[in-house]
Amino acid sequence: MEIKPYTFELLCRIRKTSPLIHNITNFVAMNSSANILLALGASPVMAHSIDEVAEMTAIANALVLNIGTIQEDWMESMLVAAKAANQKGMPVILDPVGAGATSLRTRAVKRIMDETTIAVLRGNASEIFSLAASSIKTKGVDSSLALSAQIVEAAKEMAREKRCIVSISGEKDLITDGTRVLRVANGQPVMTKVTGVGCGLSAVTAAFCAVAREEILFATTAAFALYGLCADLAIQISDKPGSFFVAFIDSLYTVGEKDIDSLLLVSEE
Amino acid sequence: MEIKPYTFELLCRIRKTSPLIHNITNFVAMNSSANILLALGASPVMAHSIDEVAEMTAIANALVLNIGTIQEDWMESMLVAAKAANQKGMPVILDPVGAGATSLRTRAVKRIMDETTIAVLRGNASEIFSLAASSIKTKGVDSSLALSAQIVEAAKEMAREKRCIVSISGEKDLITDGTRVLRVANGQPVMTKVTGVGCGLSAVTAAFCAVAREEILFATTAAFALYGLCADLAIQISDKPGSFFVAFIDSLYTVGEKDIDSLLLVSEE
Amino acid sequence: MEIKPYTFELLCRIRKTSPLIHNITNFVAMNSSANILLALGASPVMAHSIDEVAEMTAIANALVLNIGTIQEDWMESMLVAAKAANQKGMPVILDPVGAGATSLRTRAVKRIMDETTIAVLRGNASEIFSLAASSIKTKGVDSSLALSAQIVEAAKEMAREKRCIVSISGEKDLITDGTRVLRVANGQPVMTKVTGVGCGLSAVTAAFCAVAREEILFATTAAFALYGLCADLAIQISDKPGSFFVAFIDSLYTVGEKDIDSLLLVSEE
Description:
Shape of chain A: globular
Structural class of chain A: alpha/beta
Oligomer: homotrimer
């Protein structure tokens, strides 16, 4: 798999076919996720009522479940939507925002992963680690060790056990299917100073998976790399969070083959 | 009716009197609708609880109902608010986001239109078409035909039947009272690449109707034209969605008589 | 208390320790409050479900309650969270958005203030006045009199009665503990043309109180002054609301000791 041409190919497919991405996401990230998807070329829709989620999933091309600001009835809607997505073989991306912070969130993620099939789990190191088997987990994770050997093992084991891609945003992103481990070095620290940027990557991952055939490991890697690359372009405009985010949205809209060819930083461990 | 001086007159009234616009709208567009109304000179308020909507409507000057991210209890609040608005003769603007996509949304719009009196229905061609009488509707609408003769007929018939203004955003906007058909050529394609821009127009239409007396057809046309004109001004700053939207907000704040006189593009069919 | 060095000291503490600010806030301001807190250097979390608010408060350093877009079940969550915060002695900041506009909102504020202990109440003059004892209140407040003697008296009395800081945003902000009255002259009128700016100040006040020890009166004053100062910096970039807000976020991220020393405008009455 040549990741650069593949990334560009998927980007072109997104822009050409405008896949419909059904988001059941948190209140904070709804607006930014929609704008990120639109700038990329995808079509976002937000719908959470149990009275319509199955129908919306039926016409969508990928589903994003994001548990930030979760509440009980939204949880039920997520399960209904994920089951509908599973039935039609459509990719489901799960963003475990704040898993480990409260038992409601940890429980929500576990329930979704137990009762439905997830294509990609995308979070930060602390969230992913909080979901790892207790055999791996010791006493919480020091964020400075975020992408340490311990986390790599936890991610690989989880990917094998759950048969999904596990992807971790960090200084150097990690994407694994349980066997192979890919790394993305694109991205900028200021991304952590803007809300919804992680959630937006989950949405972008959904768009990439929506237009990929089988290669979800590489589609996820392509999403991470392109997203980080757009931050690398935006930082040239501004390194302050307000104007950086504006430039980042602009970059998602304008990023092209030349940028990908010269700036994409993906490696395999 | 001279549309240019009328548009400027309504804009001045909005800026002078700051009409209070009560929005029961979707989670994605709440922030952007509020900012759009503030930049224009109106006063937005968002309130959806059934325990306060009637009271809020009582002190407001116009009501916006927007069914994106609708759920059952919000639906009930919309009906209560619309009835309160009808009782005091205050204009209600309905934005049927995603009508046709799920039965919940189609049903929500039909129920609002059956049980209350709407002043203006504002959507895109596919949404409006999904609500048209089956006598008009054939097998869905090709978006390339969006503003074709078929849509014009559907809009006119709906306007006559429901005794409201039907307005459709598109390459060339359409506003009709069932008899007259007005067209607005202002606006930019990049508006479809920013979330909440359509919803924002519904809110702006509410502000214009709030300060108009009887001429709702022309107030709606003025709202569409001014909104598109602000996009025409913003595109001169940037044609990329992130920075375009920032410039668009700025334009709503600074747009003046000279811009209206030289750039407003309204015609009658 | 030297307010300039104290303001800078608290800012440094926020940037160094990234206090976790638990927000139960309205749908409109969630995204902007999160971005404002991130730019400042704090860590925002939004969580409203009654199934997790106590746990979230337990790991947080301050709590913001904001009643814009309030609904019954969120109200219950606010009470649970505030009680958990009180138990651990963590500051609670209450933003009474729209108090006085509907009985639901007025009742919500009164219930929170009756059943829990608030460290800081932050609103505009009309909101604070609507909550004042009827002995003070006559027939509503003319906004042109917003910070008149009448309001100062109402704020002082409320602060003494409720044993909290009462702070009022306006042309010249007022912060009082019932005895002392501090004034902040920083800030720009265009702040009222961007949604969520007042809500964002409540969040910033929470961040300052989170890192202060006992001096809540001065921590609140420092928050107001720094916030207004960032607006004073941003207005030099743009005086239009879209681009002003982008520059304002950037200023929160870059503001430093030199700006504070030369531009902070705090006085005592």
